Each structure stands twice: as C-alpha cells, then as structure tokens.
C-alpha cells in the first residue's frame, strides 16, 4: 500500500473565514502529522467565492488549491452540509514519497479548448510523467472543448470531476483555482504515483427504453429535429403530457425530464453499454430542445428511464466498480471524491442523505468530499473522457 493519507472537513459556520478554518482543522487532523500536498475545496454560493479562496489560501499556505462551487450543499460522510449561510468543505491529500500533486488552470479568454491545453500544460510541466488521474472543475457550457484541449496535451489520462454550480442556474458559480476564484475557466489537479491504487467510475442511474430516434438536425447543444420531426413533438410523444404546456408555449423541462433524459450509446461494456446522457432543459415553440451536452447530427438517441431508487442505489454499483478496478478492500481506502448531478439531487430530494449513508456503510469513515454539479466528466474505458448530464462519478484512492 502507498503512504497516501487523506482528510476531509466541512463547516456550516456563517462567517466564511471561520467556516474554512474549521473545515481545514478537521481535515488536517486526519493526516496524522503529514503536510497537506493538495486541497480540493467546495463551497456553496452563499459564501463569497473570493473570500472562500482567500480563507483557504490563508489556512493552507503553499498548498495547491482546486475546486468549485456546489449546488444544494456540500456532500460529506456526515451528510449534506447546508447551513443558513451554506457550507464549505475540503479534501486534503498528503504523501511523503509515494505520491505527488499539482494544480493548473486557465480562463476562457483564448477559447475553452486552449484553456484545457494551458491548464494541462501546467500539470505537465510539474512532472516528467503523465499524471495517473486528473481532477477537473470547469464552468458550465463548454466542457467538451475543455476535455479536448486536455486530451491534446495529456492523451489517455483519465479526467474526473464536475461543472461548477449554484442553487438556481443563474450564473453565480465559480471555479477555485490555485490563484483565485474565477467566473469562467477551468481548474485541474493532477495525481502522480505508481504505488497509488485508484478506482474511478462515471455512470448514469438510468436504463434505456425502446424509444429511439436519429438526430437529423442540431446545432451544438440544441436538438432541432428527430427523425425529421420537431424535437419537441418527438419528446412529447415519448414522455407524455407532463411537458405539453412547455412544448406548446416553450419553457423549462428540467424537473419533468430528470427521470427521463435521453442517451447516446457510446460503447463501454458490451453487456452494459455506456450511455452519454443529455438532460432536456428548454423547449422552444418552434420545435428545438436545448440540452446540456453536445448533440451531434446522425447520432441515435434513446429515451432513458430512472427512479428515485435507481438514483440512490447507483452508489453501490460505483463502489463495487471502483474497488474492483483499484484492487482495494474497503478498509484500505484512504479517501473518496464524489460528483453527483444537481439535477439528480433535486429529483431525489431528501434521499440524497441516503446516497451518503450508503457510501458510509460501504466505506466506513473514509474521508469523503462531494459536489452537486451542473455537468459531470469522467473516463469511460474504450471511449475516453466524456462530458455527461444527470450522472454520478466516484473516485476512491488507496
């Protein structure tokens, strides 16, 4: 086993500096005297992002920082942390010889793909080898471009993380980079070390139905026609009258489609293909439907079906897959990182606590930090790094 140690802390204290200090103090104690070498940080937008970053920088001088704002609360081994002024959380990594860490970031001034390249080059310059795994936090909207840029510099390296979020999809999100909080850009954190055992999986908690259609016209993240018919017309026929008003007048579809997104089969296990999930977000009276991931023309989409039980129970499958991939027993896990789609969290309501309690039952008191995100990124064997919606990602390290 490696000498990796991890520690998690959180706080619902109202004052930002006090909340960060409390979270860091708890996380530090779990490191057993080893110095923190990387900090993944989370906060809700109830706290000012610049103040959050400044407080973490003060509490962790010289430690690479990486993270983002989270919707609905900070996910922890103790449950959802969401006080009257939100919550903050931190996951610390320490190692004296077996692991190394670095952070890199870039804004979108020269484009999202170039931002991915720049952030990846910053990681590349810190070591002569490619990282074992890269954590990502990006602002929503251009994740596929960012991943392409990372792949230009670090081909084949698994990338896991989620898109920054707020409570109401109003653009209040921020990404925490090593240098500060930014409104538009990407932060990356790299992990190196051959002795590390890492299991990382991205999945969606839905099953395919027999309803399928080909995207016959689209522009980026807008599906215009399916099998030559208006996208709204086809979705209405599939989903039913719960979206009839929005189809007729135009409107938000997020809540009505949280259990019935659409998916594109992208390979993976032949017995259980990976479905890239697209969350129908907005219907337009003229017929197009906006989604939160790219919808390429010619792709076949499938109506997917989920339930509160499937959205909660997926964590058991993710734990099994992570432990098997890493060849780890639960007792040997040093820490865990969770990405849970905010749309899924909103759909399950209070049962998000059950998601976290299931993780605790499986992994014990392992340090855990999780985010509710507006987009999920992960590596799928045989496919590569992808951006998906309504998905869950888990990383377990030992």
From TrEMBL:
Transmembrane segments: none
InterPro entries reported in the protein's UniProt record: FIST_C, FIST_domain_N
One Pfam family in the UniProt entry: FIST
SMART domains reported in the protein's UniProt record: FIST, FIST_C
Residues in FIST domain copies: 35-230
Annotated ranges, domain FIST C-domain: 231-380
Coiled-coil residue windows: none
Designated name of the protein: Histidine kinase
Native source species: Polyangium spumosum
């Amino acid at each position: 086993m490696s000498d990796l140690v991890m520690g998690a802390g959180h706080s619902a204290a109202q004052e930002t500096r006090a909340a960060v200090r409390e979270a860091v103090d708890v996380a530090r104690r779990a490191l057993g005297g080893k110095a923190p070498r990387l900090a993944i940080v989370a906060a809700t937008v109830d706290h000012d992002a610049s103040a959050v970053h400044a407080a973490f920088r003060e509490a962790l001088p010289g430690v690479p920082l990486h993270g983002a704002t989270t919707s609905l609360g900070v996910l922890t081994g103790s449950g959802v942390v969401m006080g009257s002024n939100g919550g903050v959380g931190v996951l610390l990594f320490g190692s004296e010889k077996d692991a190394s860490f670095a952070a890199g970031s870039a804004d979108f001034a020269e484009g999202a793909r170039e931002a991915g390249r720049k952030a990846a080059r910053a990681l590349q310059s810190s070591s002569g080898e490619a990282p074992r795994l890269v954590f990502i936090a990006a602002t929503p909207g251009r994740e596929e471009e960012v991943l392409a840029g990372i792949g230009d510099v670090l081909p084949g390296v698994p990338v896991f993380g989620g898109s920054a979020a707020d409570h109401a999809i109003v653009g209040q999100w921020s990404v925490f980079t090593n240098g500060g909080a930014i409104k538009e850009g990407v932060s990356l954190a790299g992990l190196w070390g051959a002795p590390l055992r890492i299991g990382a999986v991205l999945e969606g908690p839905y099953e395919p139905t027999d309803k399928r259609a080909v995207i016959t016209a689209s522009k980026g993240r807008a599906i215009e026609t399916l099998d030559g018919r208006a996208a709204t017309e086809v979705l209405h026929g599939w989903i039913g009258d719960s979206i009839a008003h929005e189809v007729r007048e135009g409107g938000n579809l997020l809540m009505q489609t949280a259990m019935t997104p659409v998916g594109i089969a992208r390979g993976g296990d032949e017995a259980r293909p990976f479905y890239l999930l697209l969350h129908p977000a907005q219907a337009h009276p003229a017929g197009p439907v906006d989604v939160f991931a790219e919808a390429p023309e010619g792709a076949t989409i499938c109506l997917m079906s989920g339930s509160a039980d499937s959205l909660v129970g997926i964590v058991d499958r993710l734990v099994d897959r992570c432990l098997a991939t890493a060849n780890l027993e639960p007792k040997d896990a040093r820490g865990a990182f969770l990405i849970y789609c905010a749309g899924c969290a909103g759909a399950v309501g209070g049962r998000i606590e059950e998601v976290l309690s299931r993780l605790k039952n499986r992994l014990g008191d392992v340090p855990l930090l999780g985010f509710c995100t507006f987009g999920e990124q992960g590596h799928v064997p045989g496919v590569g790094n992808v951006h998906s919606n309504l998905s869950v990602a888990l990383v377990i390290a030992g």
